[in-house]
Amino acid sequence: MNYTFLKIDPEGPKTANSNLSSLELLDHEEYFSLARTYKDQHEDDMNFLQDVHAKSFNQWKFELTQDFNICLYGWGSKRSLLLKFAEHIYNTMIDHSRERIVMVNGYVQNLTIRDLLNTVAGSISGIGTKIGSQPAEMLENLTMLLDEDKSQHVTLIVHSLDGSALRRPASQMILSRLSSHPQVRLVVSVDHPSFHLLWDSSLRSAFNFLFHDCTTFLPYTVEVDVVDEVHDLLGRTGRKVGGKGGVSFVLKSLPENAKNLFRVLVGEQLAAMDEIPVIEHNSWDDKDGPNRAANRKSESGVEYRVLYQKAVEEFICSNEMKFQNFAKRVS
Questions:
Q1: In a domain, 230, yes or no
Q2: How far is CA 227 from the centre of its chain?
Q3: Which of 5-19, 38-52, 217-231 has the lowest mean pLDDT?
Q4: What is the domain range of residue 72?
Q5: pLDDT digits (tens, 9 = 90+) for 72-108
Q6: What letter does residue 198 receive in the DSSP assignment?
Q7: What CATH number is given to the structural domain containing 197?
Q8: Domain named Origin recognition complex subunit 2 winged-helix: which ranges (predicted)?
Protein backbone atom coordinates (compact mmCIF):
# COMPACT_ATOMS: atom_id res chain seq x y z
CA MET A 1 0.00 0.00 0.00
CA ASN A 2 1.10 3.55 -0.75
CA TYR A 3 0.97 6.07 2.06
CA THR A 4 1.05 9.82 1.66
CA PHE A 5 2.32 11.88 4.56
CA LEU A 6 1.48 15.55 4.96
CA LYS A 7 4.03 17.47 6.94
CA ILE A 8 2.59 20.43 8.80
CA ASP A 9 5.07 23.12 9.73
CA PRO A 10 4.16 24.47 13.18
CA GLU A 11 5.75 27.82 12.35
CA GLY A 12 3.40 28.36 9.40
CA PRO A 13 4.32 29.41 5.86
CA LYS A 14 7.47 31.44 5.44
CA THR A 15 7.64 34.49 3.23
CA ALA A 16 10.68 36.15 1.77
CA ASN A 17 11.93 39.42 3.16
CA SER A 18 12.51 40.87 -0.31
CA ASN A 19 10.09 43.55 -1.47
CA LEU A 20 10.04 46.41 -3.95
CA SER A 21 10.58 49.06 -1.32
CA SER A 22 13.94 47.51 -0.41
CA LEU A 23 15.30 47.94 -3.95
CA GLU A 24 17.63 50.80 -4.72
CA LEU A 25 16.28 53.06 -7.44
CA LEU A 26 18.48 54.13 -10.34
CA ASP A 27 19.08 57.81 -10.85
CA HIS A 28 19.39 59.31 -14.33
CA GLU A 29 23.17 59.42 -14.38
CA GLU A 30 23.52 55.80 -13.35
CA TYR A 31 20.89 54.68 -15.86
CA PHE A 32 22.51 56.44 -18.81
CA SER A 33 25.98 55.27 -17.82
CA LEU A 34 24.75 51.66 -17.79
CA ALA A 35 22.88 52.16 -21.06
CA ARG A 36 26.01 53.50 -22.77
CA THR A 37 28.13 50.55 -21.66
CA TYR A 38 25.48 47.93 -22.48
CA LYS A 39 26.37 45.64 -25.38
CA ASP A 40 23.80 43.40 -26.98
CA GLN A 41 25.01 39.82 -26.89
CA HIS A 42 23.55 39.29 -30.39
CA GLU A 43 25.12 42.40 -31.92
CA ASP A 44 27.70 40.47 -33.94
CA ASP A 45 25.06 38.11 -35.30
CA MET A 46 22.81 41.00 -36.34
CA ASN A 47 25.72 42.73 -38.08
CA PHE A 48 26.48 39.50 -39.92
CA LEU A 49 22.83 39.28 -40.99
CA GLN A 50 22.98 42.81 -42.40
CA ASP A 51 26.13 41.92 -44.33
CA VAL A 52 24.28 38.96 -45.83
CA HIS A 53 21.47 41.25 -47.01
CA ALA A 54 23.99 43.76 -48.36
CA LYS A 55 25.28 41.12 -50.79
CA SER A 56 21.95 41.44 -52.63
CA PHE A 57 22.40 45.15 -53.39
CA ASN A 58 23.53 44.52 -56.97
CA GLN A 59 20.54 42.26 -57.54
CA TRP A 60 18.14 44.87 -56.15
CA LYS A 61 19.62 47.57 -58.35
CA PHE A 62 19.27 45.33 -61.41
CA GLU A 63 15.62 44.69 -60.54
CA LEU A 64 15.01 48.45 -60.35
CA THR A 65 16.46 48.92 -63.83
CA GLN A 66 14.01 46.29 -65.11
CA ASP A 67 11.02 48.46 -64.09
CA PHE A 68 10.31 46.58 -60.87
CA ASN A 69 9.89 48.19 -57.46
CA ILE A 70 11.24 46.65 -54.27
CA CYS A 71 9.52 46.00 -50.95
CA LEU A 72 11.57 44.85 -47.97
CA TYR A 73 9.74 43.07 -45.17
CA GLY A 74 10.68 41.02 -42.13
CA TRP A 75 11.20 41.34 -38.41
CA GLY A 76 13.37 44.22 -37.25
CA SER A 77 14.26 47.72 -38.37
CA LYS A 78 15.39 47.98 -41.98
CA ARG A 79 16.31 51.65 -41.84
CA SER A 80 20.08 51.18 -41.62
CA LEU A 81 19.94 48.59 -44.41
CA LEU A 82 18.14 51.03 -46.72
CA LEU A 83 20.63 53.75 -45.86
CA LYS A 84 23.45 51.45 -46.96
CA PHE A 85 21.53 50.59 -50.13
CA ALA A 86 21.07 54.30 -50.90
CA GLU A 87 24.82 54.79 -50.45
CA HIS A 88 25.46 51.85 -52.78
CA ILE A 89 23.21 53.37 -55.46
CA TYR A 90 24.93 56.74 -55.13
CA ASN A 91 28.41 55.25 -55.42
CA THR A 92 27.47 53.34 -58.58
CA MET A 93 25.79 56.28 -60.33
CA ILE A 94 27.28 57.33 -63.66
CA ASP A 95 25.81 60.85 -63.86
CA HIS A 96 24.85 62.36 -60.51
CA SER A 97 23.24 65.37 -62.20
CA ARG A 98 20.64 63.16 -63.91
CA GLU A 99 19.84 60.77 -61.08
CA ARG A 100 18.28 61.68 -57.77
CA ILE A 101 17.81 59.78 -54.52
CA VAL A 102 14.90 60.91 -52.34
CA MET A 103 14.50 59.36 -48.90
CA VAL A 104 11.22 59.74 -46.98
CA ASN A 105 10.64 58.73 -43.36
CA GLY A 106 7.15 57.27 -43.48
CA TYR A 107 7.11 56.70 -39.72
CA VAL A 108 6.93 60.45 -39.01
CA GLN A 109 3.49 61.10 -37.52
CA ASN A 110 2.75 64.43 -39.25
CA LEU A 111 3.99 63.42 -42.71
CA THR A 112 1.53 63.92 -45.58
CA ILE A 113 1.46 62.76 -49.17
CA ARG A 114 1.80 66.44 -50.16
CA ASP A 115 5.13 66.63 -48.34
CA LEU A 116 6.35 63.57 -50.21
CA LEU A 117 5.34 64.92 -53.64
CA ASN A 118 6.84 68.34 -52.89
CA THR A 119 10.10 66.71 -51.85
CA VAL A 120 10.31 64.72 -55.08
CA ALA A 121 9.53 67.83 -57.15
CA GLY A 122 12.15 69.82 -55.24
CA SER A 123 14.81 67.22 -56.00
CA ILE A 124 14.15 67.61 -59.73
CA SER A 125 13.74 71.34 -60.25
CA GLY A 126 14.92 72.86 -57.00
CA ILE A 127 13.49 73.51 -53.57
CA GLY A 128 10.37 75.67 -53.54
CA THR A 129 8.88 74.33 -56.76
CA LYS A 130 5.10 74.79 -56.73
CA ILE A 131 3.17 71.85 -58.15
CA GLY A 132 -0.28 72.54 -56.69
CA SER A 133 -2.20 71.97 -53.49
CA GLN A 134 -4.29 68.83 -54.06
CA PRO A 135 -2.53 65.44 -54.28
CA ALA A 136 -4.07 64.50 -57.64
CA GLU A 137 -3.11 67.85 -59.14
CA MET A 138 0.37 67.65 -57.62
CA LEU A 139 0.92 64.17 -59.06
CA GLU A 140 -0.14 65.31 -62.53
CA ASN A 141 2.20 68.32 -62.43
CA LEU A 142 5.03 66.17 -61.10
CA THR A 143 4.51 63.72 -63.96
CA MET A 144 4.66 66.58 -66.46
CA LEU A 145 7.84 67.80 -64.77
CA LEU A 146 9.44 64.39 -65.25
CA ASP A 147 8.29 64.14 -68.86
CA GLU A 148 10.04 67.40 -69.71
CA ASP A 149 13.42 65.70 -69.27
CA LYS A 150 13.44 61.99 -70.06
CA SER A 151 17.01 61.64 -68.81
CA GLN A 152 16.01 62.42 -65.21
CA HIS A 153 15.55 59.42 -62.89
CA VAL A 154 14.43 59.45 -59.28
CA THR A 155 14.99 56.64 -56.79
CA LEU A 156 12.40 57.10 -54.07
CA ILE A 157 13.16 55.28 -50.80
CA VAL A 158 10.36 55.21 -48.23
CA HIS A 159 10.93 53.91 -44.72
CA SER A 160 7.83 52.28 -43.18
CA LEU A 161 5.39 52.53 -46.07
CA ASP A 162 2.78 51.00 -43.76
CA GLY A 163 3.21 53.74 -41.16
CA SER A 164 0.18 55.65 -39.91
CA ALA A 165 1.08 58.70 -42.01
CA LEU A 166 0.95 56.90 -45.38
CA ARG A 167 -1.47 54.09 -44.55
CA ARG A 168 -4.56 55.75 -46.01
CA PRO A 169 -5.87 54.25 -49.29
CA ALA A 170 -5.70 57.64 -51.03
CA SER A 171 -2.00 58.00 -50.18
CA GLN A 172 -1.27 54.46 -51.32
CA MET A 173 -3.03 55.11 -54.62
CA ILE A 174 -1.02 58.29 -55.27
CA LEU A 175 2.21 56.44 -54.48
CA SER A 176 1.30 53.54 -56.76
CA ARG A 177 0.63 55.91 -59.65
CA LEU A 178 3.91 57.70 -59.00
CA SER A 179 5.86 54.43 -58.84
CA SER A 180 4.41 53.32 -62.19
CA HIS A 181 6.16 56.21 -63.95
CA PRO A 182 9.12 54.87 -65.97
CA GLN A 183 11.49 57.48 -64.51
CA VAL A 184 10.66 56.68 -60.88
CA ARG A 185 12.10 53.72 -58.98
CA LEU A 186 10.51 52.91 -55.65
CA VAL A 187 12.15 51.09 -52.73
CA VAL A 188 10.11 50.71 -49.54
CA SER A 189 10.25 48.93 -46.21
CA VAL A 190 7.26 47.65 -44.25
CA ASP A 191 7.12 46.68 -40.59
CA HIS A 192 3.66 45.29 -39.84
CA PRO A 193 3.15 41.53 -40.34
CA SER A 194 -0.15 42.20 -42.17
CA PHE A 195 1.24 44.83 -44.52
CA HIS A 196 -0.09 43.00 -47.59
CA LEU A 197 -3.64 43.87 -46.53
CA LEU A 198 -2.94 47.48 -47.49
CA TRP A 199 -3.36 46.75 -51.18
CA ASP A 200 -5.97 45.14 -53.35
CA SER A 201 -5.07 43.41 -56.60
CA SER A 202 -5.12 46.61 -58.67
CA LEU A 203 -2.88 48.54 -56.27
CA ARG A 204 -0.48 45.64 -55.96
CA SER A 205 -0.29 45.40 -59.73
CA ALA A 206 0.36 49.15 -60.00
CA PHE A 207 3.18 49.00 -57.45
CA ASN A 208 4.78 46.06 -59.30
CA PHE A 209 6.72 45.03 -56.20
CA LEU A 210 9.36 42.37 -55.82
CA PHE A 211 9.36 41.26 -52.18
CA HIS A 212 12.51 40.44 -50.23
CA ASP A 213 12.65 39.02 -46.72
CA CYS A 214 15.14 41.26 -44.92
CA THR A 215 14.79 40.19 -41.31
CA THR A 216 17.37 42.07 -39.25
CA PHE A 217 16.16 41.66 -35.63
CA LEU A 218 17.26 45.25 -35.02
CA PRO A 219 15.15 47.29 -32.57
CA TYR A 220 12.72 49.89 -33.89
CA THR A 221 14.47 52.74 -32.11
CA VAL A 222 13.32 55.38 -34.60
CA GLU A 223 10.30 53.92 -36.36
CA VAL A 224 8.22 53.40 -33.21
CA ASP A 225 7.50 56.22 -30.77
CA VAL A 226 6.69 54.40 -27.54
CA VAL A 227 4.85 57.37 -26.00
CA ASP A 228 2.62 57.88 -29.03
CA GLU A 229 1.89 54.16 -29.27
CA VAL A 230 0.79 54.04 -25.64
CA HIS A 231 -1.45 57.06 -26.16
CA ASP A 232 -3.01 55.37 -29.19
CA LEU A 233 -3.71 52.24 -27.16
CA LEU A 234 -5.34 54.36 -24.46
CA GLY A 235 -7.45 56.22 -27.01
CA ARG A 236 -5.64 59.51 -26.53
CA THR A 237 -4.47 61.66 -29.42
CA GLY A 238 -1.90 63.79 -27.64
CA ARG A 239 0.44 63.84 -24.70
CA LYS A 240 -2.00 66.01 -22.77
CA VAL A 241 -5.69 65.27 -22.79
CA GLY A 242 -8.29 67.89 -21.99
CA GLY A 243 -11.81 68.90 -22.89
CA LYS A 244 -13.96 66.29 -24.59
CA GLY A 245 -11.03 63.89 -25.03
CA GLY A 246 -10.15 64.13 -21.35
CA VAL A 247 -13.73 63.44 -20.25
CA SER A 248 -13.91 60.43 -22.56
CA PHE A 249 -10.63 59.06 -21.21
CA VAL A 250 -11.73 59.45 -17.58
CA LEU A 251 -15.12 57.84 -18.20
CA LYS A 252 -13.50 54.83 -19.85
CA SER A 253 -11.43 54.23 -16.73
CA LEU A 254 -14.42 54.36 -14.34
CA PRO A 255 -16.31 51.28 -13.13
CA GLU A 256 -19.83 50.75 -14.42
CA ASN A 257 -21.60 52.01 -11.27
CA ALA A 258 -19.55 55.23 -11.28
CA LYS A 259 -20.50 55.78 -14.94
CA ASN A 260 -24.17 55.32 -14.07
CA LEU A 261 -23.86 57.80 -11.20
CA PHE A 262 -22.29 60.32 -13.56
CA ARG A 263 -25.18 59.80 -15.98
CA VAL A 264 -27.71 60.45 -13.20
CA LEU A 265 -25.78 63.53 -12.06
CA VAL A 266 -25.74 65.01 -15.57
CA GLY A 267 -29.45 64.31 -16.02
CA GLU A 268 -30.38 65.96 -12.72
CA GLN A 269 -28.12 68.91 -13.46
CA LEU A 270 -29.77 69.52 -16.84
CA ALA A 271 -33.22 69.17 -15.30
CA ALA A 272 -32.34 71.69 -12.59
CA MET A 273 -31.04 74.17 -15.17
CA ASP A 274 -34.27 73.93 -17.18
CA GLU A 275 -36.37 74.72 -14.12
CA ILE A 276 -34.55 77.99 -13.37
CA PRO A 277 -36.30 80.99 -14.99
CA VAL A 278 -34.39 83.30 -17.28
CA ILE A 279 -33.70 86.65 -15.64
CA GLU A 280 -33.67 89.74 -17.80
CA HIS A 281 -31.97 92.84 -16.51
CA ASN A 282 -30.61 96.11 -17.79
CA SER A 283 -27.26 97.28 -16.60
CA TRP A 284 -25.45 100.48 -17.41
CA ASP A 285 -22.25 98.81 -16.27
CA ASP A 286 -22.56 96.01 -18.81
CA LYS A 287 -19.61 96.01 -21.16
CA ASP A 288 -21.93 95.28 -24.08
CA GLY A 289 -23.48 98.73 -23.74
CA PRO A 290 -26.26 100.48 -21.80
CA ASN A 291 -29.92 99.44 -21.85
CA ARG A 292 -29.02 96.09 -23.39
CA ALA A 293 -30.79 93.04 -21.98
CA ALA A 294 -28.63 90.13 -20.91
CA ASN A 295 -30.08 86.68 -20.42
CA ARG A 296 -28.35 84.90 -17.62
CA LYS A 297 -29.00 81.86 -15.52
CA SER A 298 -27.91 81.65 -11.95
CA GLU A 299 -25.70 78.79 -10.93
CA SER A 300 -27.60 75.57 -10.39
CA GLY A 301 -26.70 72.40 -8.58
CA VAL A 302 -28.05 69.08 -7.35
CA GLU A 303 -28.61 68.47 -3.67
CA TYR A 304 -26.62 65.70 -2.06
CA ARG A 305 -29.69 63.89 -0.72
CA VAL A 306 -31.53 64.12 -4.03
CA LEU A 307 -28.63 62.58 -5.92
CA TYR A 308 -28.19 59.87 -3.29
CA GLN A 309 -31.89 58.99 -3.45
CA LYS A 310 -31.77 58.76 -7.25
CA ALA A 311 -28.71 56.51 -7.05
CA VAL A 312 -30.47 54.18 -4.61
CA GLU A 313 -33.60 54.07 -6.78
CA GLU A 314 -31.56 53.00 -9.81
CA PHE A 315 -29.62 50.39 -7.77
CA ILE A 316 -26.31 52.14 -8.35
CA CYS A 317 -25.34 51.86 -4.70
CA SER A 318 -26.82 50.25 -1.62
CA ASN A 319 -25.44 52.50 1.12
CA GLU A 320 -24.11 55.98 1.62
CA MET A 321 -20.48 54.88 1.94
CA LYS A 322 -20.47 53.38 -1.56
CA PHE A 323 -22.26 56.45 -2.86
CA GLN A 324 -19.54 58.71 -1.48
CA ASN A 325 -16.88 56.48 -3.02
CA PHE A 326 -18.50 56.69 -6.47
CA ALA A 327 -19.05 60.43 -6.09
CA LYS A 328 -15.34 60.97 -5.45
CA ARG A 329 -14.50 59.11 -8.65
CA VAL A 330 -16.71 61.28 -10.87
CA SER A 331 -15.94 64.58 -9.14
A1: no
A2: 9
A3: 5-19
A4: 56-213
A5: 999 999 999 999 999 999 999 988 888 999 999 999 8
A6: G
A7: 3.40.50.300
A8: 296-325
